[in-house]
Amino acid sequence: MSDTNNRRRKDSAKLVWDTKPKRAPNPRDIEFQTAEIVIPNPQEAQSSLPLFATPQSGLTSLFPEQMGELPLGGYEIDKAQMNRLIWGDNLLAMQALLSQGYAGKIDLIYIDPPFQSDADYSFRMTVEGQQIDKEASIIERLAYTDTWEAGLDSYLDMLYPRLQLLKRLLIDSGSIYLHIGSNISHYVRVVMDEIFGVENFKNEIYWRRVFSHNDTKGRYGIVTDSILYYSKGSDHKFNAPKKFHDSDYINSRYTLSDDKGNYQLVSLNSPNPRPNLKYEYKGYLPPANGWSVSKERMQQLDEQGLLHLPTDKSKKIRVKNYYDENKGFIVANIWDDISPVNSQAKELTSYPTQKPEALLERIVKASSNEGDLVADFFCGSGTTMAVAERLGRRWIGCNLDKVGIQVSRNRMVNQQAKPFLLENIGNYQRHMIYLSGSKIGEMQRIILKLYGAEPRSDRPDLGVKTNDDGTTELVYVGYPDRPVTAKKVIELAQETQILDGSGFKTLVVLAWDYDYNYTTEYESRKKLLKSPLSVDIKALTIPPEIYNYLKKAKNEAELDGLRDKITFQEKPYLKVSKPEIRDAGNGKVIISLGIDRYVLMSFPIPEKQQAELRKAIKDNFAALIDYWAIDWDYDGVTFRSTWQAIRGNGRRSQTVVTLAESPELPLGKRTIAVRLVDVFGNDASATVEVR
Ligand SMILES: C[S@@+](CC[C@H](N)C(=O)[O-])C[C@H]1O[C@@H](n2cnc3c(N)ncnc32)[C@H](O)[C@@H]1O
């Protein structure tokens, strides 16, 4: 035997690239923070549905889980059982799920990772008839540029550890479908073989996503995507999807008909010599090889009226084959019967890479059963979850892109899904910094520099900015893992008045995020101060693109050049109206509450569109609101929205109403919380006390 034969192993071929990760990522103890418990009750549906009804009003049968004493506080929710929409990097989300005991818990995974290196991640929308392009936030852009920075290598660097984690999350009888473009499907398939095992490869499905394409210079048009389908083990669920022939097919093949239906005539000549089946039947001589059925069978068919006996006895007997409407056939791996989402479709969200629900429906039905858990960690506009919900599956969706999260949330609310969680990955910023390898103190220094301030040597979070007119400002940078609170800002303001002896006139706060009820809290704390504050306070937010600059800038001089490219946005301003309370009898009240004002200082859109947008929203701030929701009985910890108004996307978008009315609520003291997300993904919130 040759040397090669001695050393030969089976199926050892693998894909190798320079930066291929050596170790699989571990589960990580990262918390999820509940941003909202969404109890869908879209404002548009409220006129037709008696939502908020008491159990006897009939809604119980429609949404049993949502009813009971809803939304009056006694609503027990088991978060562990709920569907979840997670905003954040899926690597972190999967590590967190694994550390929470999700290993082997997911029945079906579908993922559709981005596969177009030149994709444009801006999101087009129409506000008051004006088209605007929201640029991708840099957190998103960073993820995408990172993904393609070193071409295929970095793409595989991104995908490989994620596939390893996906495998751990799958149950033994589970399946994974990976949707990918033909530009890289062959590489990804080899990697999938390595991780899931060649023996678990089931199909490469070709989905015909378009009918014609213009990319035909010197080659054939590319009209398919691949969907790689693998099982985790040998014993996997598969409910083979069936299809039925269309009427053209039936009429062209089953050309004859009688009172039993359409039929075709099929030969009874044996293809191989069958000397024992050479018999004469009713004067018809046997074919050269003999008949394909025995004489008894021939008689049976005759009695059943299934034989075609030609008048000319020199011709051969044939059997009638009726078209069986229930039979259908099992779908093969070319899927050319599912059209892309068209511009008129009801399901259209305008999310650029949205896939059709029919595609997901086929996959979800084939590889999961009712009650199973279905997940999509690159969930985009939420197609997988919309379908899973409709088909009675449980679901987890994850997305890095805030617009995608917004679109998905709106989609699930409009669909009146069962209550679900909207979650952040806790300590998100800190983990992002960790992922990009920087320390927090260093980060704060850089942010100060980018704002144009000189970091102070005595405090890592403070700096001083000298303006062109010689005036100075004290600048504070928040910590990435905690929001800036009103209490902190008041303390800082008091310190600002006396710092360095003469104090500063202006305090600039640069925050990653502000506390939930910052504005109201700040106003009420300010009123309680014994001596009024004498400093101006500018509350700004740090744009997430800082990560990008941090990665790129190699030295301080480079930072200087970046300064005018980045804008610290002023915190959006939300003012809710004074609640109006109406007596509804039997110890109940009805509360009306609205939004008085929403002001956004800057827009992340191309400059040329800005002035137009400002004009368009001048007397109509509501046009900027994408979603707003109310918790009529806020417990101070978890925001449970039981009323939502949604702007919607595409042609169906409409300005939200700005006034809401509660169901009948028991008399008594309560806190009402309002949360708003604008079309750019900015959050704002406020709470009101009602007695
Ligand atoms: C091609 S789209 C998916 C579209 C989706 N199938 C649909 O029907 O709408 C890919 C999505 O993956 C998201 N994504 C990319 N990298 C990610 C990451 N590291 N973590 C989470 N989501 C990510 C993108 O934001 C984008 O929404």
Write the layout of secondary structure elements.
Blueprint: H1 3-7, E1 32-38, H2 59-62, E2 83-87, H3 90-99, E3 106-111, E4 123-127, E5 130-134, H4 138-148, H5 151-169, E6 170-181, H6 185-196, E7 201-208, E8 224-231, E9 242-243, H7 247-253, E10 256-258, E11 261-267, H8 295-303, E12 307-308, E13 318-322, E14 329-330, E15 334-335, H9 357-367, E16 373-376, H10 383-390, E17 394-399, H11 402-414, E18 420-425, H12 428-435, H13 440-451, E19 454-455, E20 462-466, E21 472-477, H14 486-498, E22 506-511, H15 518-528, E23 536-541, H16 546-552, H17 556-562, E24 569-570, E25 573-576, E26 580-585, E27 588-599, H18 607-617, E28 625-631, E29 640-641, E30 643-646, E31 659-661, E32 665-666, E33 670-678, E34 683-690
Helix pairs in contact: 3-5, 5-6, 9-10, 14-15
Bound molecules: S-adenosylmethionine (SAM).
S-adenosylmethionine is lined by residues 89-90, 112-114, 143, 351, 353-355, 378, 380-381, 383, 398-401, 404.
Offer a quick outline of the entry.
With 691 residues, the chain is an alpha/beta fold. It has 18 helices and 34 strands.
Using brief descriptors, characterize the structure shown.
691 residues, alpha/beta, Immunoglobulin-like, Rossmann fold, 4 domains, 11-stranded mixed sheet, 6-stranded mixed sheet, 18 helices, 34 strands, 26% strand, binds S-adenosylmethionine
Summarize the structure in words.
The termini are far apart. It contains 18 helices and 34 strands. It has 691 residues and is of the alpha/beta class. 26% of the residues lie in helices and 26% in strands. About 4% of the residues have low confidence. It has an 11-stranded mixed β-sheet, with helices on both faces. A 6-stranded mixed β-sheet has the order 19-20-21-22-23-24, with helices on both faces. It has 4 domains: 177 residues, Sandwich (Immunoglobulin-like), CATH 2.60.40; 199 residues, Rossmann fold (3-Layer(aba) Sandwich); 78 residues, no CATH class; 130 residues, Trna Endonuclease, Chain: A, domain 1, CATH 3.40.1350. Strand 4 and strand 5 form a beta hairpin. The chain is elongated, with a radius of gyration of 32 Å. It binds S-adenosylmethionine (SAM). The site of S-adenosylmethionine (SAM) has 19 residues, from strand 17.
